[in-house]
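Review form for a predicted model. The reviewer records the input and the model, then writes brief findings.
Reviewer: anonymous (R2)
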Amino acid sequence: QQILKLQNLGYLEGGKPTSRGLKETATRETISVVYSYEKRPDVDGDSILPDGRTRPFCETLVRMDKVYSRSEIDSISNAIGRDVWYYRGGWYHNPDTNKNTPSCRHYWKQNVIIK
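Model under review:
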């Protein structure tokens, strides 16, 4: 079907590119995935809590307001010596349930960029 489409548009003739086909360049979308560090949608409050209750790691990344590639996040993990994909800012103690979980109020939000 694609070959027929190219023939109908005048880009191919007899299986070979026409002069028009040689002049045209194919446009192709580039899809990439990047991650932003944001407050989880299931928690209340601001991204940065008052009274210094937000971990320095989380506050720094939230205030930077940028996107990161997977390899950049892996580099952050290597630099600080823990898996920030899993632990993010660190352990959280829920005072209502008295349980600890290996993450904080933030997460790595996946963003798909099409150029």
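Findings: Helices lie at 2-8, 19-23, 56-64, 70-80.
Further findings: The longest strand covers residues 31-39.
Recommendation: see findings above.
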